[in-house]
Amino acid sequence: MGFRNIIGRRLGLGLVRRRKPFSTATCDGDGNGNAKSINLYSAINQALHIALETDNRAFVFGEDVSFGGVFRCTTGLADRFGKARVFNTPLCEQGIVGFGIGLAAMGNRAIAEIQFADYIYPAFDQIVNEAAKFRYRSGNQFNCGGLTIRAPYGAVGHGGHYHSQSPEAFFCHVPGIKVVIPRSPRQAKGLLLSCIRDPNPVVFFEPKWLYRLAVEEVPEHDYMLPLSEAEVIRQGSDITLVGWGAQLSVMEQACNEAEKDGISCELIDLKTLLPWDKETVEASVRKTGRVLISHEAPVTGGFGAEISASIVERCFLRLEAPVARVCGLDTPFPLVFEPFYMPTKNKILDAIKATVNY
Amino acid sequence: MSLSHHHLNSNILPTLSATIPTPFPLVFSAPIVSFLSFIFYSPLSLPSSPPIFSPFPSSLPTRKKMATAFSPSKFAAQPFPLNTTSQNNPLTIPTTASPFLGSTRKLIRLSSSSNLNIRRRSGTVVAVSDVVKENKSKSTLNLLITKEEGLELYEDMVLGRAFEDMCAQMYYRGKMFGFVHLYNGQEAISTGFIKLLKQQDSVVSTYRDHVHALSKGVSARAVMSELFGKTTGCCRGQGGSMHMFSREHNVLGGFAFIGEGIPVATGAAFTSKYKREVLKEADCDHVTLAFFGDGTCNNGQFFECLNMAALWKLPIVFVVENNLWAIGMSHLRATSDPQIYKKGPAFGMPGVHVNGMDVLKVREVAKEAIGRARRGEGPTLVECETYRFRGHSLADPDELRDPAEKAHYAARDPITALKKYLIENSLASEADLKAIDKKIDEVVEEAVEFADESPVPPRSQLLENVFADPKGFGIGPDGQYRCEDPKFTEGTAQV
């Protein structure tokens, strides 16, 4: 198994795909190799170390990255690779991303960090109007595929308006970039390395809630996980649940509770939101006939809407109940009201039951 | 996990005591460091009249303080002595008040004048401050304040300090949560500026805004309740630490995002000018103050607003609270030219540097800058060199800053400095000041009790204030307003 994967990687095919077992802590790296139990920020840190090691034209930059970053994801990089490759930028997100696009256009691997996804909006213009369209409008003469933008996103319990947002939906509307969201340390390392090496600009959102909380066995070697492949992390037959990032752990709790009521839930991690793996989700819905999508971002216009529309297009006659979406409310991310705003386990559970009993 | 200790001794500056290198020390004995700003400042019209400030001591800062690795920027100023006289051929600006659309102001023909010492018609004020490394020369000033003013300043600064200390305590007890950024050490700026404002003047701040709100007049109870997230808070509990607003006292926030408040302040200043000049409310001379930090000065919004404010001559003062650190990024390593005040003249407004640990100096500069704005002379950029004694936020372990640097500034605590000044100049006695300390302690304690006893916002408040009309969420399939459907707040309603 490992051998095939090594060959696959050498040929630039990424990991050779195979069936995954049914748990969130799937074994996605090679089974061999040392695996240590580490948390999310350490996994990302390892990925960045590997990325910089294997490509001497890779750069990491952003606000406060040189001392390790506010979430410690970039610890040790500046010491190891030097200030010419790992450096702080001034406080200008638009400048950071635009500068990254320039670096990428000249063939470098630019790994830009935006300190919180809430701050990515000044850079939105550069991402949408420049990064996404660079290859297209230059007729493939130039491209900024070497650009990867990493940003911590999502609720953290006390973040308030500007440290908890989930802006993935805005970026999923832009053809030309990829949007990737890992759910766990092992996934994060593999996916981040894939994103960095992917020949397209990628926005990589890291669930900040999981930076310290999620602990998993992560292989220490260099491995990549394929993009645009969703993963069924729990098999079931009654309803399909689709989610990504930190929300999956909440959904899994809901699945466990639903199990006690005899509802068998299938849980899918999209991993890549743009372009997303429609086939896997469709196959699952054809099996179960019901689907529920959950994400932290507000429900109107969230990415769940796209999934819902696509599934209905493809599986209309198979559906036994309307597509359910359990998402954040249509308000700015609140401070004190966060527990009411969030799509909690109970809300998901209620929706599962409502859908199954439709 | 171990944080690899990141050695901060960059090659830019060996020690941070020489924080702002002064490439042209002589210039700092002059009112303004850049010649362009002479366009907008008059030097003293009469050589014999005493300057408002004592000039920089004749022992000028020696060149050894010049940064070794910091190369002076292309700095074309000729050093102007403090008392420039009319023999320098001033070029007079047309003295008509510029029409509202400020862009019709005639451009100054710079090329035709060899000496850009331009005199304004008002000609009475000089806003200047020395780049003071140590807190000297306060004792050489004439008494700048009366006893009442002195006690007011002292009380305000002590309120700020006591409040922030109480915040820290409450945070560690779990009564407040979220990201809280404390203002310890920077009180002189808030007090120095805001205490000169009227109620209708506006203040726009950053996430480090508790003390700005307090200085502006928002009660300690309201701020503390807001921090606790209660309905009696100044924003009904919806804003939190970083978003202090007050309609009554014209505090326009509280911005978590750096630089976002500056355009908002610019718009507020525009309103004031519009009211005066177009709507002819002749007594409307409201000024807006925008506070922000050194990191923000590298952000595009800052520059855009400097341009707009100078272009339209808005009554605004841009106050840079340069505490040298943007979380963990040293200002000196993030900025091509760390002397922020120089950015003012590049846009056509005066740029002034002041020692932000000295409330009296700040107040003098503030008087001038706010006065300029009130008279319609346009914006000013004031850079206050200051320091935050605590970390960036209560979650910041603050490991990166050199303890020597911290000690250097801790010795310049603005409150102790003012106390010393008041006592030495017999403006107040120890007993007076202790009484104030005690009073403030009681105020803060009472604020905590009030906040504790206040109610938490009801769940229905969750949907309020998203739109003007909470029914803006529309009508659900059952014909009822969605916001009234209990399932809406549970998130399971069909939307």
What does this structure look like?
Chain A has 358 residues and is of the alpha/beta class. Chain A has two domains: 217 residues, Rossmann fold (3-Layer(aba) Sandwich), CATH 3.40.50.970; 126 residues, Rossmann fold (3-Layer(aba) Sandwich), CATH 3.40.50.920. Chain A is built from 14 helices and 14 strands. In chain A, the strands form three sheets. A seven-stranded mixed β-sheet of chain A has the order 3-2-4-5-7-6-12, with helices on both faces. Chain A is globular, with a radius of gyration of 20 Å. Chain A starts with a helix and ends with a helix. The two termini of chain B are 45 Å apart. In chain B, the strands form three sheets. In chain B, strands 1-4-5-9-8 form a five-stranded parallel β-sheet, sandwiched between helices. Chain B is 31% helix and 7% strand. By secondary structure, chain B is an alpha/beta fold. In chain B, helix 1 packs antiparallel against helix 11, helix 1 packs across helix 12 and helix 4 packs across helix 12. The N terminus of chain B is likely disordered. At the A-B interface, strand 14 and helix 14 of A face helix 13 of B. Chain B: It catalyses: N(6)-[(R)-lipoyl]-L-lysyl-[protein] + pyruvate + H(+) = N(6)-[(R)-S(8)-acetyldihydrolipoyl]-L-lysyl-[protein] + CO2.
